[in-house]
Amino acid sequence: MGRKANPKCVYCAKNYRTEDEAREKNAECYVEHNCRVKRYRLRKANKVNAKRRANSAREKGIKTLTPTLPEAYRAELEIYGKENQFVHAISLKIYQGNKLSHQMLPQHTQGLRQSELEDYINKLLAHLKTEYGIDCFGLIYWLNADDCPECKIHSERPRY
Asked: What is the domain extent for residue 98?
């Protein structure tokens, strides 16, 4: 196991972002090349260590595999309203990998009872299961009812 870094160097690397600032604050111990390398290593330890491990494995003849994530579908449910109080509208976004592939406009659910709302969400899940193979929501967001895009569109229209 390596030796721990000098606490003064750790403080300098984390709190003084530029070389000039570090040189000014720690003039008595700052050495141009040594401090530049040490500061980089202390700030980006994860990156430096990962690169060092990869180089070591390559020298030993071990091939490292980069994991490839499948372009699987995932669904996110957006609920407009106050959590555990009322539901103003429900929206759905479907992603393939990190790319948004489908988006459902918010459907207003005002006036629906709890059981009717649960049936609606179960129907959404059943549709997602048959179409995309999604059996649960990846994330569920509670958003402010005032941010409902459908309500904003209707309130901006001029009235005649």
From this structure: 73-156
Residues 36 and 95 in one domain: no
Instruction: Using 70 as the pLDDT threshold, list the residues of the chain that sit under it.
Output: 1, 64-70, 155-160
Say if residue 80 is in the same domain as residue 149: yes
pLDDT in the model for residue 160: 45
- The domain tally of the chain equals 2
Helix, strand, coil tally for the chain in percent (to 5): 45, 20, 30
Nearest to 25 by CA among 38, 37, 9: 9
In a domain, 65, yes or no: no
Amino acid 119: pLDDT: 94
**Cα–Cα dist 48/41, whole Å:** 6
Q: Are 145 and 81 in contact (CB under 8 A)?
A: yes
